[in-house]
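Q: Convert this sequence to structure tokens.
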Amino acid sequence: MQKENWPIIARLLDLTKESSESNFQNGIMSILTSDLGWPESQVSKEYPVRMGSTSKKMDFLLKDSEQHPMVVIEVKLSKSHDDGVAQLGSYMNALEPQLNIGLVIKDKIYVFYDESNGRKLSSLSDAIYSIPFESGCAEGEKFVELFDFNSFSYKKLLDFCVKRKQELKEKQDKLQMIQKIVNLLFGSAGVDFVKSAVVEKLGSIEPFKNYSFQVLEAAIADLDISIKKNTEKQELNKSEYTAEESIANNSLVLDIDRSSCYIDKGKKNKIYPNGSQERFVENFHAQGYGFIYWVLENGEIKKEKWENRNNSITTSNINNNLGSKTYYRANKQRISEIVISSKELNLTINY
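A:
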């Protein structure tokens, strides 16, 4: 199977993603067996798995020639409120042997890799790779390369996942370091830190190294040094950092003007870039969704799309609804503030 066949796969997925679940699943079965060449004996549909005292059925399971489980696939219509990730993780953990690679096929193909066999998966943002249903995308060609049965190698797939997660971790570390530097330089001790660094550097080069440390320090102390942010913000490269790759979005800055925001102060400040809580609620009902940005104490930012499922959100109960969110309940000790917006916000780096 040639990777050039990805456009055929992308078109079928795009055509069926909003139809019925059975049509979507049938299309995916056709892709697996016809377009990717997997024999039906190694693709199980509605595969039963024991979970506690009950039996569940996963949508698809790819197996090796000896019928051992390799990759779980969970399917959800693009318009479904359920992203299927928690379900995928539970299946990965319940299988024997347990698995650390799984796919969710929804509005995109999401690839997950979790060394803890799915126990740490909670949302689409945990995906290490996402493939849009677009005919010309390199990610789609890579997907075919990885999952074409004629050239399939579980080791190659595993190596790709491990490398991809490491790359995202390195991006995360870089962005966290940038944020720490920003916090240091623009904090109350930033100028003193810069002056000390300048003194230390001058003490090692001509002609300044002939002077004592005390003289250099006194000279620098008399200088008026100020630190200013660059007014031009460097936007993220959308092809490199996507909303789904939250691990790469950690420690970035939300692109909002706080002076124009409404702030509902409390144990966890709630910030509304729309200007008021009332305006957010009005827009939330008008468009059917909003966005929550959970800002953690370590600088990480977790984005969650908030669907308007029953038109029950009001200004009087919005705080209770936020407090009942799964992510909030699991991470409330780590959350420093919450940004609630009608529109998807940009993530930027300030240098």
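The two ends are 46 Å apart (CA to CA).
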